[in-house]
Write a structure and sequence with these properties.
mainly alpha
Length: about 300
């Protein structure tokens, strides 16, 4: 997977200021989506095999180094949102793996002040750490009353997203809305409506009922991942289920929060709903592994 992430940096297709895709001719492949699943598999497998020495420096350092490398490649694409989601998943798995609380406390006491300082530096435009479009999105989100053209452009999509959700009412306008140009979707007022902002279209066409159903279904899948993990016969299965559940939950929250203007605009797909081959394949692989882990428990009970 690191090889494919390196290929993206060298030969990837650039779109909207980010180099995240490999063009295969007949389709495009986004390695960062599959990297989410591969990282969870790696961490669960390595920690399971070294659980007796988990609290040693060598084991912890190996997990951290081999996890940070792909995260760093994804950050350089740049893909800050995916980087943050994967990092949260990484932290959750480490917390649930059985690392001694003294180590966790020491890491938190050390890293939180450093993270605050680094975060402040990163948010300064003069630092050059983030891409220009990332600074613009953060700036437009923090200064909603700004009249600058770049700020208006960045807010336009999210404002239309809220308009689409609100216009759906209780039960929505129905599919296609009979080609009504006043519809946010049919009037083409919402670019990326089939990918990052698909939840806005759900709200417009299916209304509050449909949007709530999508949220509840995603929440139910996350809960089921946690339940399956708690019943898994091995640490390996337990860590994967919890890791995938965290990934699914955080990514779903961020996507919906962006479409409702709770968070700055970013580029995360809504799991199992957004258009995108690599994203769908990675989610299906993840949920397939969770189901397999659940079946292993059932076999053990027979």
């Amino acid at each position: 997977m690191i090889f494919f992430l390196l290929l993206v940096m060298l030969f990837g297709e650039t779109n909207l200021g980010a180099k995240r895709w490999i063009d295969l001719g007949f389709t495009q492949f986004q390695p960062s989506e599959l990297a989410k699943i591969f990282l969870i598999i790696f961490m669960a497998t390595y920690i399971y095999k070294h659980q007796e020495t988990l609290n040693t420096f060598k084991t912890l350092a190996t997990v951290v180094v081999f996890s940070i490398i792909p995260i760093g490649f994804i950050y350089k694409q740049p893909d800050l949102s995916t980087t943050i989601v994967i990092f949260i998943t990484f932290c959750a798995i480490m917390f649930l793996s059985g690392v001694h609380y003294k180590i966790i406390t020491g890491v938190l006491v050390t890293t939180i002040p450093i993270a605050l300082v680094v975060g402040y530096i990163v948010l300064q435009p003069s630092s050059g750490i983030l891409a220009d479009y990332q600074y613009q999105r953060i700036e437009s989100f923090l200064n909603k009353d700004s009249d600058s053209q770049s700020s208006k452009d960045d807010k336009w999509q999210q404002e239309n997203s809220i308009l689409a959700i609100g216009s759906g009412g209780l039960t929505g306008k129905g599919f296609n809305d009979n080609g009504n140009v006043l519809s946010v979707k049919e009037g083409n007022f919402l670019p990326e409506s089939h990918t990052d902002f698909i939840f806005a279209i759900v709200g417009e066409e299916l209304g509050f009922v449909g949007a709530a159903a999508v949220i509840l279904l995603l929440f139910a899948i996350v809960v089921e991942c946690f339940i399956t993990g708690s019943r898994a016969p091995t640490l390996h299965g337990r860590l994967f289920c919890f890791g995938f559940g965290v990934l699914l939950g955080v990514q779903s929250f961020v996507n919906i929060a962006v479409t409702t203007m709770i968070l700055p605009n970013t580029g995360l797909p809504l799991p199992f709903v957004s258009y995108g081959l690599t994203s769908l394949v990675s989610m299906y692989c993840g949920i397939g592994i969770v189901l397999n882990i659940g079946l292993q428990r059932n076999k053990a009970l027979v």
